[in-house]
Design brief:
The structure is a single chain. By secondary structure, the protein is an all-alpha fold. The protein has a single domain, classed as Orthogonal Bundle (ADP-ribosylglycohydrolase fold), CATH 1.10.4080. 69% of the residues lie in helices and 0% in strands. The chain is built from 19 helices and no strands. Helix 1 runs antiparallel to helix 17 and helix 13 packs parallel to helix 15.
C-alpha cells in the first residue's frame, strides 16, 4: 500500500516534470508527497475490509462516498461521484448505479484496478480472489473488462507477495502466464499475450509503451504497469520511474506498478527519504498491517476470507 501510494504521488508530479533528473530533484525538495484519488480509494477499500473482516458492498460504497465528500479535490474522475449522486438521489444500490453508467455498459476505466491492492493482500491465498475483486469493483466499475483488470491487479499483488516471501527470482514470462490463466476477458488476455511476448523478447520501454498503451482504460494501462514491474522486479525505484516516465496516465500507472513492486519487495525496499514524506504514511502503513491482522483473525475463527 505504501508503494502504491508513492507511485501515485510521484506519478502525479511527473505530469509537470517528466524528466527523471528534474523529477528526482523536485521529489527531494518536496515537503510532502501528496497522493490522489487512486490512494484515497485504496485507503477506503482497506478501511472497509478491516472493519468487516472482509468485503461488504454497501459498507464499501458508503466508505468511498464519505471519503469523497471529505476530500473531493483529490482528482476523482467523473464516474465515482456520479455513482454517489445516483445512490443518494434515486435510492439505488452502488452496483445498480455503477451498472447504469456509459449507457448501461458500466465503466472499464482503470479506477477499480488502481485501488485493488488491498484485495490482493487480504485474499492473496483465497480461491475467491476473482469474485472478491468483482465485488470490490462493482460499486463503481461493472464492465467485465474493468472487473477483469482489477482482478488481474489483485492476482499480480498476490503472486508478487508469494514470490517475495519465498525469496524466489521472478520469471517474467511465467508471471504473465499465471495472469493469463486468471483473466476472464478477451480484451485483457490479448494485452497480456502482447505483454508476454514483450517481456520474453526483452523489449525496451518505448516499444512496450507503444504496444501496450498508457491510457485510462484498464486494458490500455495495467499491462504497461505490469511491464514496468517485470522489467525491474528487484528495484522499487526503477519500477516506479519506468511506470511514470513514459507518458500517459502517470499517477495511476505508478500506483498499479508500485502496488506489485511493494508486495514483492516489502517496506524496506522503499527509499526512506520518500516514505517519510508520503502524506499520511503512518496511516497507510497502519492500514496495511491492519489488513494482515484482520485476515489472520478471520482465518483463526475458521471463517476463511470470504465476503462480509
Amino acid at each position: 500500500m505504501v508503494g502504491s501510494a508513492l507511485g501515485d504521488a510521484i506519478g502525479e508530479l511527473a505530469f509537470a516534470t517528466p524528466d527523471r533528473r528534474l523529477l528526482e530533484r523536485r521529489v527531494q525538495e518536496a515537503l510532502i508527497l501528496r497522493y490522489t484519488d487512486d490512494t484515497a480509494m485504496s485507503i477506503g477499500l482497506a478501511e472497509s475490509i478491516i472493519q468487516n473482516a472482509g468485503l461488504d458492498s454497501r459498507h464499501l460504497g458508503d466508505t468511498f462516498r464519505r471519503n469523497y465528500n471529505r476530500e473531493p479535490w483529490r482528482g476523482y474522475a467523473s464516474g465515482p461521484p456520479t455513482v454517489f449522486s445516483l445512490v443518494a438521489a434515486r435510492d439505488l444500490s452502488y452496483e445498480q448505479a455503477a451498472a447504469s453508467l456509459f449507457g448501461g455498459s458500466g465503466s472499464f476505466g482503470n479506477g477499480a484496478a488502481m485501488r485493488n491492492g488491498p484485495v490482493g493482500l487480504f485474499y492473496h491465498d483465497s480461491p475467491e480472489l476473482y469474485e472478491r475483486s468483482r465485488q470490490a469493483s462493482a460499486v463503481t466499475h461493472s464492465h467485465p473488462v474493468g472487473v477483469d483488470g482489477a482482478a488481474i491487479l489483485a492476482k499480480a499483488v498476490a503472486l508478487a507477495l508469494e514470490e517475495g516471501a519465498a525469496r524466489r527470482q521472478i520469471s517474467a514470462v511465467r508471471f504473465v502466464e499465471e495472469l493469463l490463466r486468471f483473466s476472464r476477458t478477451g480484451e485483457m488476455q490479448a494485452r497480456l499475450e502482447t505483454l508476454r511476448r514483450l517481456v520474453g523478447a526483452g523489449a525496451d520501454p518505448g516499444e512496450a509503451a507503444s504496444s501496450l498503451g498508457r491510457g485510462v482504460a484498464v486494458q490500455d494501462s495495467l499491462p504497461f504497469a505490469l511491464y514496468a514491474f517485470l522489467s525491474h522486479p528487484e528495484s522499487f525505484e526503477e519500477c516506479l520511474f519506468c511506470a511514470i516516465l513514459n507518458g500517459g496516465d502517470r499517477d495511476t500507472l505508478g500506483a498499479m506498478a508500485c502496488a506489485v513492486a511493494g508486495a514483492r519487495l516489502g517496506l524496506a525496499s522503499i527509499p526512506e527519504r520518500w516514505r517519510l514524506k508520503l502524506e499520511n504514511h503512518r496511516r497507510i502503513e497502519g492500514l496495511a498491517a491492519g489488513l494482515w491482522d484482520a485476515r489472520e483473525r478471520s482465518v483463526r475463527k475458521g471463517g476463511g476470507t470470504g465476503s462480509g
